[in-house]
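Our consortium's second objective concerns turning raw sequence data into structural hypotheses that experimental partners can test. To show how far this objective has progressed, the report includes one record in full. It was chosen at random from the queue rather than selected for favorable results. The single chain below, 456 residues long, was entered without modification.
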Amino acid sequence: MFSPISSNSSLFNQGKNITSLSSVNTFDCNNNYNVNLNGHSSFNSGSNDLEDNAQEQFFNDNGYSFTSGYGLINAAAAVAKAAGQSAFADVPNLGGNNWGADLVKAPEAWAKGYTGQGMVVAVLDTGVDFNHDDLKDNIWTNSKEIAGNSIDDDGDGYIDDVHGWNFADNNNDVLDRYGHGTHVSGTIAGEKNDIGVTGIAYDAKIMPVKVLNDEGSGSYTSISNGIYYAVDHGANVINLSLSGGSPDSTLEKALEYASSKGVIVVMAASNDSGFQPDYPARYADKWGIAVGAVNKNNNMAGFSNKAGINSLTYVTAPGVDVYSTLPGNKYASYSGTSMATPHVAGVVALMLSANHNLTDAQVRQIVTETAVHDTQVPSLGSRDFMSNSSATTSSFSVIDYHDDSYRSQNRLDDSKTVQFSSFSVSSTLGSQFSSYQTLLNNLNYSITDYDDTTVW
């Protein structure tokens, strides 16, 4: 992992005496197993995002870059190949807030009639606002369950799981009160209704599986149970916009189970600026797809974990200033590999709508073979990671964003936890940005305020 030093001598040092010029609190972590999950993720949305700071990439014999993997996912080519057709012709860009769909060439697939119809994408996250006007018609329903009768009608062990299950609290309340899962869902399957945002697979269904609590944290056990639930209840794709710093055999077995059932798991690489993804994305050497983040110019986001020297099924997707849904019929622009991952999950749903019979291995092969190998990468100079006067660190700062206001809280969680793969908020709040960062085993929440700060 990088340990760059800014012009103001803010030190990025994994697990030890981490400080930030703008952090309210700094902590000393002496346990080497305490790994930062979500660092380096907040920055000025008006920045140029390294577009002038690219360096030569190093590829192996298979065209795999140690930085950007196989490059930018390409729906026009991937969906065409899944359907056994030639690559789809270009169509005019949608522009505006739909730039992410343009960049991955989703409209080219839509023009051919592939919109995610018949596909179910499970969002394992903080829940989903299934009442949102841009999502409510695309929410999965368990047809075997009768709502509100307090009976396990389908005998699956979950009572009244009409719209999924909450593994964080062990109940059927899957509503999102944090915002992350709803934002992810809009990118996947926001309705094509001329309002808000249009999802990459806008005719797919979202299966809410809540594995992170209302404060945004959860356990590998909850995530593993969520994977089994999603697979057993008909999901075709699973979106994991979350990450942890350590391997876990239970989680690994759950991913293997999904693959064996033909369910494709798409996983965020995380935002540590590391040389390889965190978990579970690092399991993409065997199952599923790991995703790094780029900006609208297809420049690699400096906060994004790179692909690593061990070949993974790793592609990139839009993850900087991505506009999408929030609870309460709201919208905002977030940044992080959490935002890149649902773009890829949406493309996979398009592929499966073109060919229902694709296996995990076949999807992985098509995605890598059709990706665009021109993602630009940051140079290794410290300026390419930080500019101006302050920067986030791999410390423990979290801000909770609700309705254009900030609510801070301090909490220490001594259990083994994992949190979503981080994002920042860009809205009417001007120069204030939210930084979502956690530490494995030690999770603390405090306000971090950014003023004209760029963090790569």
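The partners drew two points from this record. Residues 337-354 form the longest helix (18 residues). Helices lie at 75-82, 99-103, 106-111, 180-189, 220-232, 249-260, 337-354, 360-370. Both points have been shared with the crystallography group to help prioritize constructs.
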